[in-house]
Write a structure and sequence with these properties.
The chain contains ten helices and nine strands. By secondary structure, it is an alpha/beta fold. Bound molecules: uridine-5'-diphosphate (UDP) and magnesium ion (MG).
Amino acid sequence: MKPYISIVIPVYNEEKNLEELFRRLTSTLDALAKPYEIILTNDGSKDQSSRILQQLHERRPEQIRVIEFNGNFGQHMAIMAGFERVRGDIVITMDADLQNPPEEIPKLVAAMERGHDVVNTHRQNRQDSAWRRFVSKMHNKCRAWMMPKLKMEDEGCMLRAYSRSIVDLMVATGEATTFIPALALNYAYNPTEIGVAHEPRFAGESNYSFYGLIRYNFDLVTGFSLFPLQVFTMLGLSISGLSFLFVVFLMLRRVIVGPEVEGVFTLFAVIFFLLGIVLLGLGVVGEYVGRIYQEVRRRPRFVIRKVLENDVVLEQYAQQKVEID
Ligand code: UDP
Ligand code: MG
């Protein structure tokens, strides 16, 4: 049977969480009584996650599908690899560490069934360390200011739902550095946002250091806005404008007051004017280089080592394990 709901989960060193995730997730989805599949991408874990994922697949071969990367390509690439293989109509992403309670999934499905094509979420009573909450808050504020068109309250919550057509569009972009919730909003026709519960990590620690978080957030800013480049253009423009006024002022002074300190200020004015133009030019070139840079890096986004799945052929299971090694 073709799945109706597809759950996509990136996994990186989550050996202690997978069993509990499986238990809570399958009991929630079984209760929904709709056909579903769960796609877990192992993003190059160094612990026992790979072995545990294989066992989970063997326990429920029709529902649990596993993609094994041959290295660590990052959370968003792991989700993209899952997106490439989804079969359901409603696609839901979530974390493997149980910070996103699986029990919230029916809320997302209900919102999708009301006709929305993207269901955004924000975390209610966020359960993270104080510094993490602070960084997130600052970043969400900055992002809202730099990218006013991106209407979301909390970019960091990955428990979200997308319609299959939005997922297919996201896959078609082929972007190597991306930020899935923002990408989805670019294509959404009728998005909505709901609040979902948040829990502390079931076991283990966050995979993101402070530096990792900054780099991760930079993907969002550079991927969806040219604001940082435009700052330079604006700077160049204002310096040129101001120094032009300064030149006019000095010329008038020369006529009214007469010659002053041997032309030193005139020289300053000319230099500032030129400096402004140089900065302006650099900004304009930067705009182009930034755009080209975004397009041109067509490296393979990730490498899949192995896929564990039962091929569904025309509504009937061909009980044949696809294992590409
Ligand atoms: N993750 C991943 N690859 C990475 C880092 C994280 O697939 O390089 C997964 C991780 O297993 C989890 C999700 O992404 O399912 C969120 O990661 P984490 O809980 O460490 O981040 P946080 O909740 O602290 O933002
Ligand atoms: Mg987490």
